Model the fold of this input.
Amino acid sequence: MDQLLLPSVKKVDGTVDLPGSKSLSNRVLLLAALARGKTEVHNLLESDDTKHMLDSLKNLGTDLVLSDDGTRCTVTGLGGPFPVSNADLYLGASGTDIRLLCSAVCLGNGIFSLTGEPRMFERPIGDLVEPLTDLGAEFQYLRDEGYPPLRVKASGLTGKKVSVRGNISSQYLTSLLVSSPMMRERFIINVEGELVSKPYIDMTVEMIRRFGVEVTNYHYQSFEIPRSDGYESPGRALVEGDASSATYFLSAAAIKGGTVRVNGVGRDSVQGDVEHASVLEKMGAKVSWGQDWIEVSGAPLHGIDVDLNHMPDAAMTVATTALFAKGKTVIRNIYNWRLKETDRLSAMSTELKKVGAEVIEGEDYLEIVPPDKISSASIDTYNDHRMAMCFSLASLGESAITINDPGCVSKTFPDYFSKFQDIVKII
Done:
């Protein structure tokens, strides 16, 4: 197993140009493929998840031209459903990809299989399959009921009213929203229960709008998509910097007392994770905002009690930031951590204890009491990119930290550790 030793950091300072957002990259690519006209996609994220989406769109008959550096792509839109009648799609560990494409392939006609890495087989998809079945698709689970891998028999989707559970993952609703304008008739989606990760739905609705379709949001309880002729390319689509990736650099400044600016997201961002900066401000950091940048300067941090259901990825960064805050931090309403790349509630609890924290792991919350001194530890990452990136922050204490399997960051941020080293000083 590969390991990366991170020496104890003495100082943090600098500027980071963020890679493109994973969530936006995959949404934009799919929307561009379904739209009429060519779309020039700029600042595309180069990562495993994006590669799986690009490969799948090619297999489904989309004409793509990718730049040598992987950050620009010309997509010739299909102006309708995918034209192929048979495809086997491998989505790696990308829950976003498999859920988006699960609906999208149903718009056409044919037989499609969707599979991925073993962890994917533990991530539920039944709450998306059920409404798609009501809309006319047929599914066969190839292993366990309600989970990938699965086979889809598609014959188009008939628009009408369906319901989808909202308390497990917002990606089920996102998937239905993205495919719904291709149903060519008025469509209503009702949300059962409390919708988690609402900012991700706001992001989806905004991207759909940029491709020519207006979605009406009735207080996150139902969504109405009008009858339309499908998507129209905006011609050019710029992918914002990744707000989730920004959290690690901003927290580093807050923890160590330096100043870090991230370029690529700011007050005009469509991504909910920019609110991580506001959480840092509540913990005692100084935050400045620009249109497309955020700057954080450190201050003594204190623990907080906060509901972070709306930003589960950034909540992980708050958990490791809490190692350096005075007093207890409680992060609430994060049950969906258990359904991510790993059971993140259990994994975070285990690894936080390794570095000396006192941790109580609840069903949907985490209580963290920081140690007097961070202990040196080897951090297991569970093939989860965010575990690796979050625990790089532990090296801001007095001890060296070893990250096991650091290459797992290739899922969304292949050069993360290089950019992290650019803002830290170890002597």
